[in-house]
Design brief:
Number of helices: 29
Number of strands: 9
Largest sheet: 5 strands, mixed
Radius of gyration: 27 Å
Shape: globular
Structural class: mainly alpha
Strand order of the largest sheet: 6-5-7-9-8
Length: 757
């Protein structure tokens, strides 16, 4: 107890000390990476931005996190982060940057929290280096610059970590309850993903507290019960509310939050079976990997005037199109193939793994000489906490069937913590120890530099040979010099150690800058020279480092000097109508979406219209406008359509109805008026029936329907009924011919009108 009291007094004394001047530039770096130019992204992730617009309009929409102002369907996540975003938009006004701001501040806050957590136990230099490593981990600013949830989730888990560490130091049970309750709050941000760090909390509390086993079990049981109660509190309220008094729970199949939590956002992420029809992402990815060529090569002789029909006849290797997710090497959404070395595969390694070899050497050094039965020092106990966070999360991402690159931010805190603690520990061993321990520092530097060369090698065409060769050469030289130096305690050696750390952080720093340099994708954030594509893969011949887009594809309606074939997803070389990608269809040589593509397995923000792969507008080349309406969706509003619908609205609740959120979101953002996404996010939610739709039409709630090639899964009967009982509105009345208006519901869909008496 005396030891605990002395730690508390030490903490109070340290809090009175002046600000660490070395921390100031680290925080400024984090602020720059997280905040600079966020005001240029007007729509951000339009799916979530539309929800904030809707939540601003009523407490009913606010509480349930309704996607649309009419309260028809919710978004596919719990509401806590969106409550915060809505409050920010209420204070600062509704803007892209105001919904990004909470996540950007959370990213900066995570850097500060990691500094505080590491400084107390491992020393001020460990805190500084850990904070800097966190700030420069590329996926951290890439995610924090969007309105996606993960940055806020990580910050909340670090707050819970601070509470847990304080609980152990002060021996106060109240802090244990607070820590586990905070995990419950995190659950209401992104459901089961919050529990990925939970093993670390149990392991640390069991090992670090000096109380009887009886008390440990009692305290942890009580804290866990509180965590579960907080976790399901919102879900219980929603699921207990009559379905006709609340929005449909988006992306669930039974209109249940708990089913969403443990199904779509839970176990299905591990298995890859996130398709509502039973077909899995994993199977879809394997099919595409086996049948689709891995590269797209641009025909340099094609011109903008080339006709679509002439390009359809070109099935040579120069016209092959990579499948969504990166082709046969990088798996679905460029997340690699499951296996023990998945985090070292391209697409993932450049987001999170830059310092992993150094972390492995650090773990060896920090646990050197530790016996299983203890006793453990406080450094070893906290190292065990970070290890219990790192390993389960790394295992999950190594075997998971479906996730996006930006989920990897969950690995950033333990990696940064070990980088900071390891830098100090390995340096101390290098200068003071004998035997094998001094070799850990040069070994960590050498292997880390080698991995960084491997990570950068696919990007030679974008970043050049010089930085790759420079990192490799400097890493080898510094590691060798440190290995052979006999005099380890002079100033020259100190400078060599600092230089090595600078070299190891140089390329992660550049990668962290790429969302600012090249632009980012708010739907699928990722860092790298092709960060605006959101797919994180290396550039192909069809792209250069400054061209946004998904492997060279232009968005629908974008103007370019490329031929139209570059805007379409071509079938594999040699395929025809009789030899197609499994699960897909071909129409005049164009790739049709696989059966069930409207499910959540589709690439978010992309759509298939008349056989063309329509990409998010964020994929287009940089606009001359100071703001970009990226949103990861077809986020341009067809002004002529909007004017037509507004003029002809005779009191209907919904401006129009459409199959999914892709078409609805930009109109909700622009007008604040209800737009019905009949099948929810992807168009596959079983929300609407023919009977219900008839009732809505008779009540005068909706009369216009925009139907494209998406979203038919789970609502085919409804769509068939609409087509059979409606009058098609001539495209001349609502369709704009300008290229700037060919996104949103425009180019390839049909507008229908239904009035029932």
């Amino acid at each position: 107890m005396k030891h605990m009291n002395s730690e508390v007094k030490e903490e109070q004394t340290s809090n009175k000390k002046r600000i660490d001047l070395f921390l100031v530039p680290i925080v400024l770096i984090a602020a720059f990476l997280n905040l600079f130019k966020i005001w240029t992204d007007e729509y951000v992730n339009a799916y979530y931005t539309a929800a904030v617009k809707s939540m601003l309009q009523s407490f009913h929409n606010f509480f349930y996190a309704s996607f649309d102002p009419g309260g028809y369907v919710t978004i596919d996540k719990p509401p806590v982060v969106f409550w915060i975003q809505t409050i920010s938009a209420k204070i600062f006004g509704f803007h892209g940057w105001s919904v990004i701001l909470p996540q950007a501040l959370a990213g900066i806050g995570s850097v500060l929290l990691l500094y505080v957590l590491m400084k107390r136990t491992f020393g001020v230099w460990a805190g500084r280096f850990a904070a800097l490593a966190m700030a420069l981990t590329p996926i951290v600013p890439a995610v924090s610059r969007t309105n996606n949830i993960d940055s806020m989730l990580v910050f909340t888990l670090l707050v819970a970590t601070w509470m847990l560490f304080r609980a152990v130091r002060t021996a106060k049970f109240g802090w244990v309850l607070a820590a586990f309750a905070m995990i419950g709050v995190a659950f209401n941000m992104k459901m089961l993903q919050a529990y990925m760090a939970l093993p670390a909390f149990y392991v640390f509390y069991v090992v670090a507290t000096k109380i009887t086993w009886k008390k440990k079990i009692a305290f942890l049981t009580t804290a866990t019960a509180l965590m579960l109660a907080v976790s399901v509190s919102w879900a219980v309220v929603v699921d207990s509310t009559s379905a006709d008094k609340r929005p449909y729970m988006g992306s669930s199949q039974t209109n249940s939050v708990l089913e969403l939590a443990f199904g779509y956002n839970g176990i299905n992420r591990l298995t890859g079976n996130t398709s509502v029809t039973g077909s899995s992402h994993k199977q879809s990815a394997q099919t595409q990997q086996q049948t689709v060529s891995s590269e797209t090569k641009q025909n340099s002789n094609s011109s903008a005037e080339s006709s679509q029909s002439s390009n359809q006849g070109k099935n040579s290797s120069s016209q092959k199109m990579q499948a969504p997710g990166g082709g046969n090497q990088n798996g679905m959404f460029n997340t690699g193939n499951p296996g023990p070395f998945r985090l070292f595969q391209k697409g993932l390694s450049d987001q999170i793994s830059w310092l992993l070899p150094f972390v492995i050497f650090s773990i060896v050094g920090l646990f050197a000489g530790v016996k299983f039965k203890g006793p453990y020092t406080i450094k070893q106990k906290e190292s065990l906490f970070w290890l219990a966070w790192l390993l389960p999360v790394a295992v999950f991402f190594s075997i998971a069937g479906f996730f996006h690159q930006y989920y990897l931010i969950m690995l950033a805190p333990p990696i940064a913590a070990f980088a900071g603690a390891g830098a100090v520990a390995l340096w101390s061993m290098y200068k003071q120890s004998n035997g094998w321990k001094p070799w850990l520092l040069p070994g960590g530097i050498l292997t880390t530099a080698a991995l960084q060369v491997y990570i950068m090698s696919p990007y030679v065409s974008s970043i050049g040979v010089a930085p790759i060769a420079g990192v490799g050469a400097l890493g080898v030289i510094l590691a060798l010099v440190l290995a052979v130096r006999k005099e380890r305690k002079n100033s020259v050696t100190n400078y060599l150690g600092v230089a090595a750390m600078v070299v190891l952080l140089a390329m992660p720093a550049y990668w962290a800058l790429t969302p600012i340099i090249y632009g980012g994708n708010s739907m699928l954030p990722a860092a790298g020279p092709d960060s605006s594509s959101g797919m994180g893969g290396p550039p192909t011949a069809a792209t250069n480092s400054k061209q946004s887009g998904f492997n060279g594809m232009q968005p629908a309606g974008s103007s370019s000097g490329n031929s139209s074939s570059n805007n379409q997803m071509q079938p594999p070389s040699g395929s025809s109508n009789g030899s197609q990608m499994q699960g897909s269809s071909s129409n005049n040589g164009q790739m049709q979406p696989p059966s069930g593509s409207s499910s959540s397995g589709q690439m978010p923000g992309g759509s298939f219209n008349n056989g063309q792969m329509q990409m998010p507008s964020s994929s287009s080349s940089k606009s001359s406008s100071s703001k970009r309406k990226s949103g990861g969706m077809n986020a341009e509003v067809n002004k002529k359509l909007l004017n037509y619908l507004t003029k002809n609205n005779t009191g209907e609740k919904y401006l129009f109805a459409t199959t999914d959120s892709t078409s609805a979101a930009p109109y909700i953002i622009e007008t604040g008026k209800p737009v019905m996404a009949m099948g929810g996010f992807s168009g596959s939610d079983p929300i609407l029936t023919v009977s219900k739709l008839k009732t809505m039409i008779k009540k005068g709630e909706v009369k216009y329907f925009y139907l494209s090639g998406m979203g038919k899964e789970g609502q085919s009967d409804v769509i068939t009924w609409i087509k059979e009982n409606s009058k098609e509105v001539p495209s001349s009345k609502w369709q704009s011919t300008s290229s700037n208006s060919q996104q949103g519901p425009s180019g390839n869909g049909t507008l229908y009108k239904i009035t029932l008496k």
